[in-house]
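Sequence, please.
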């Protein structure tokens, strides 16, 4: 009897393992003679080709596994997600380098080239719907996504979470004013005065995303926490509104959570804010009415 149970359990484990393997596909692509390694996470409820998002990393030397939760969340809604190890991490070649104001132009050019290569690679994948490839960027990824989106007229859409619409210099200035990275009570921070100082910043800028954002024609959703101590959310939204008005970007949308921090945690409860309903509602509207999307 024990032998039979052991065999049945072993068969079950093998079946689960095989099913999980079918829902993942190893991806390899090159940029600047650097081999990058990633995984295409696939939905399990239907056959492809699937609408697909490329996840664009935030700061830090994090491998693909750090973002797997987001892949599985999108998989449940029928989207595939491709996550690759940032250059110099995991199984990707190259060197991971810290990005400063001085090096930001060069580093973001390199990293956006990696995303572009991932996009070009997915266009050839039969499991991917080439007409519905989007970008999903977090934090620092919000600087990288507009570079790629501004160059690709056929990009389906972009979603940017806590991504700066300010220069690297402005972001550093803002972080110093809020004491980002150091213990500080939120009720001791005068965000209005800090926003005003950042809005009137005259220092050195480094990379700025505004020219790239002005070239984006695909639908784009920016999501922020109003109490973000790393990225000046209100200044970013003001700049987005200006760009949308000046360049007639009717398919730009924003969503801001009053008590959200940079990681979209509620500063009072310390619980993560569930913003995915807003994301998927936006995507549903996009599929039903392409080219004219607003969720504000």
């Amino acid at each position: 009897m024990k032998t039979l149970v052991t065999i049945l359990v072993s068969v079950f484990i093998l079946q689960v393992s095989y099913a999980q393997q079918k829902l993942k596909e190893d991806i390899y692509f090159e940029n600047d003679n650097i081999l990058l390694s990633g995984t295409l996470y696939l939905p399990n409820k239907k056959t492809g080709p699937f609408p697909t998002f490329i996840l664009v990393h935030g700061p830090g030397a994090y491998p693909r596994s750090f973002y797997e939760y987001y892949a599985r969340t999108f998989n449940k809604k029928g989207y595939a997600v491709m996550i690759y190890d940032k250059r110099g991490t995991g199984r990707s070649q190259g060197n991971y380098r810290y990005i400063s104001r001085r090096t930001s132009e060069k580093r973001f050019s390199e990293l956006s080239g990696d995303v572009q290569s991932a996009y070009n690679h997915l266009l050839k994948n039969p499991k991917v719907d080439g007409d519905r490839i989007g970008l999903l960027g977090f934090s620092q990824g919000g600087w990288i996504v507009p570079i790629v989106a501004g160059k690709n007229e056929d990009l389906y859409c972009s979603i940017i979470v806590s991504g700066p619409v300010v220069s690297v210099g402005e972001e550093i200035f803002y972080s110093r004013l809020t004491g980002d990275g150091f213990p500080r009570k939120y009720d001791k921070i005068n965000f209005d005065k800090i926003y005003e100082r950042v809005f009137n910043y005259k220092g050195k800028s480094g990379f700025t995303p505004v020219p790239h954002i002005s070239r984006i024609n695909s639908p784009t959703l920016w999501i922020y926490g109003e109490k973000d101590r790393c990225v000046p959310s209100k200044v970013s939204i003001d700049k987005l509104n200006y760009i949308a008005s000046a360049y007639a970007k009717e398919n730009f949308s924003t969503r801001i959570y009053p008590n959200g921090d940079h990681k979209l945690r509620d500063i009072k409860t310390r619980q993560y804010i569930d913003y995915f309903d807003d994301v998927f509602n936006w995507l549903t509207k996009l599929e039903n009415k392409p080219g004219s999307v607003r969720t504000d």
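Confidence is low (pLDDT under 50) at residues 4-21, 290-296.
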